[in-house]
């Protein structure tokens, strides 16, 4: 149970909707239920997706795999996508030697994901 505005903000943040998508959405009526279903893709990864009835209830369009925000960003700046690089050897590498403008985090599959801002 939640307020309509809180629900719309959660949906916007979770599914990466744009501000324009948020402004087009509506609060659900009293007692309206928004349902998130857990899905599994072909690789076995699990994700949540809103049901069609829930999307109609709050007047939102169906989300894409990465959300509408990522489709807007990839059109504007295609170089912002993360680049995968092979993992460094753990014995010789030190986290203190990394430049400050690079943020590195481990991801699945033995790769480092490097984001440049």
Automatic annotation (TrEMBL):
Residues 80-117 are annotated as: Disordered. InterPro entries: His_PPase_superfam, PGM-Related. Keywords: Signal. Residues 1-20 form the signal peptide. This is Uncharacterized protein. It comes from Fibrocapsa japonica.
């Amino acid at each position: 149970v939640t307020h309509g505005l809180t629900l719309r903000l959660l949906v916007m943040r979770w599914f990466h909707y744009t501000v324009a998508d948020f402004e087009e959405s509506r609060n659900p009526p009293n007692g309206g239920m928004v349902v998130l279903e857990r899905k599994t893709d072909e690789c076995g990864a699990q994700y949540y997706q809103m049901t069609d009835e829930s999307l109609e209830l709050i007047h939102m369009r169906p989300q894409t795999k990465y959300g509408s925000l990522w489709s807007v960003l990839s059109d504007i700046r295609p170089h912002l996508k993360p680049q995968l690089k092979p993992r460094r050897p753990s014995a010789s590498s030190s986290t203190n030697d990394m430049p400050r403008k690079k943020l590195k985090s481990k991801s699945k599959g033995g790769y480092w994901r490097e984001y440049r801002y």
